[in-house]
Amino acid sequence: MNRLKGKTAIVTGATAGIGYKTTELLAEQGVHLVVTGRREERLEEIKEKLESEYEVKVQTAAFDIRDADACRSFVESLTANIDLLVNNAGLAKGTDPVYDAEFDDWNTMIDTNVKGLLYLSRLIIPQMKERNTGHIINVGSTAGHESYAGGVVYTATKHAVKAITESTKKDLHGTEVRVSMVSPGLVETEFSEVRFKGDKEKAAEVYKGMKPLVAQDIAEIIVFVANRPAHVNIMDTIIYPTAQSSATMVHRDV
To answer: Where would one find coiled-coil regions in this protein (predicted)?
Structure first.
């Protein structure tokens, strides 16, 4: 059953990977979209593609989610009520130990993964609360459930996303606004290339000898979570590829 048709969703970090696939699957369900990211040209390509293939309206907004003023201006520019906010924008930078990491990497992860998510949630939730309807879906990570060496700040940010999700649900207790999280393990997207600062060979090693998840897998789960009946709130889903059993346990055929 399609319970999403005609609704309007914001998807952050929509230019690639999980964000892009989520926009595509939501458009298939007849959801009107507001897609955000930093690559304006890519956003316009997405708008053209989705509007030509599906009977939906697509609005684009190119800005850096780390900029609180830009987030505020974006929300003030919206012309439709938002039924679904998918806080997908996020990244990892580096795998250095805590005693050797770069401050700039830490700031980028904290500002994007935590503060950016909070900014948009803070600005969108009031209209949902006023209408007593809506859904926030935060894209977390299995790193929000298990810390590992070399991921001190990335795992901290994803633990923060878990805490934010749980606290937001409690803040909205007694309303009809739903709050959820999706927590993927190894997903082959641009994620590792960003983490290793453009080193494609190093990024490829992450997935060597195993079949990782792909963006489509997670997008399907996001849409499934969003499409539950209004009285059903899925708080979290933890998704590993079959070859992965924890952050550090990955079976490889090599």
So the answer is: none
